[in-house]
Amino acid sequence: MVRPKKKKRIDEFEWTNQELVGGADNGRVPELANPQASLEEEEANERLVGTLYKALSSKDFDEVQRLLAPDLEWWFHGPPNHQHLMHLLTGSAPSSSSPSSSSFVFVPQTIVAFGSTVLVEGFDKERSVSWVHAWTVTDGIITQVREYFNTSVTVTRFGAGASQPISSPAVTTLRSASANKCQSVWESKLCDINSVPGLVLAL
């Protein structure tokens, strides 16, 4: 009995049943996702995050709300008195022991995207603090931010899957990252790596 050809999705490739079981077309190289579309998505994600910083700088909170998911996931690593972004996004008052968050201005020095993850780095000379934000963009909306203050951040991609970003980044130790043969794709440059803790963000 001959079965009709059915399409099956395996990762990003489409194969027919005949190809999966070693049929006549076996050996054909599957088409990869359109690299131009991936580049355009990354550029769109960079623009979106750049727009967010402009809105934060001008205190246009209607625009900020339009760009962020209502249930934005926020993760912070650094001294507790530097949670300026949380205070800006929520409107909550900083504690009396922390410097005024309302006067803290995030001025990006670099913005770079790796798939759905957009990394932004800056440095506040007045307070002598460096910061890195790792934003996750899903369908044109920012759904997650990981904030690092006075922390050296290295971004890696694991092994063979290095070209395919995973939507939820995880933090690992430098030792486990090197043990899994991670490919380093980005490092923060605005902090003194000898005097701050270091983290690896794995995509």
TrEMBL record:
Region annotation (Disordered) ranges: 21-40
InterPro entries, A to Z: NTF2-like_dom_sf, Wun1-like
Protein name (record): Senescence associated gene 20
